[in-house]
Recover the amino acids of this structure.
């Protein structure tokens, strides 16, 4: 599957944008909740640096994962479905070929 | 004042270690309290990245500031006194010349 094969109609772009935002909002809300909980348990300075390391890692990971380029969106969605931040239902309306690719990728 | 002029007796080293630890413990405890408070106010993802930026900056700053080398200890103590993490009383027992230098530096 070459990236250049994939084109997105305007309708698909709207569906993709909405799904992308939904997953991002859900994953970051979950992270916020984790960080608030971890921060409330900080007792010593090592706990503080562990929190900092965790934030550094998660920020880097999120920056890399939420790649909005059309050419990689199929892979991004497959990963988000796999991780539970998105359901295939959220992608309803995309071309059947795209949905089939995403579904196949979630099984890898 | 050349760094090489400064020598520390064993007694002075003990006083310095204790004062150094006291300031570090106080400053990091204050930071822990600030971070816990800020974390409890996180609502959106931008707040999270602000917390991360703050932790990055403060960690870097603390790493640089708490320099335990004998050659720079006079300057470190002056800064800690100036910032309120240490009192001159905590350094009682150091040679009068050192205390005078520290006191003078806190006024700069």
């Amino acid at each position: 599957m070459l990236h250049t094969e994939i084109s997105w109609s305007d309708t698909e772009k709207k569906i993709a944008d909405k799904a992308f935002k939904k997953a991002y909002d859900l994953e970051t809300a979950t992270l916020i909740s984790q960080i608030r909980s971890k921060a409330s348990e900080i007792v010593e300075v090592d706990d503080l640096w562990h929190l900092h390391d965790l934030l550094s890692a998660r920020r880097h990971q999120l920056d890399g994962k939420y790649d909005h380029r059309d050419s990689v969106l199929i892979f991004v969605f497959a990963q988000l479905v796999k991780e539970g931040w998105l359901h295939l239902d959220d992608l309803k309306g995309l071309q059947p070929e795209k949905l089939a690719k995403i579904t196949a990728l979630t099984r890898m």
Q: What stands out?
A: The interface with chain B takes residues 28, 31-32, 35-36, 39-40, 42-45, 47-49, 51-52, 55-56, 59 of chain A (CB under 8 Å). Chain A has a mean pLDDT of 94. The longest helix of chain A spans residues 10-40.
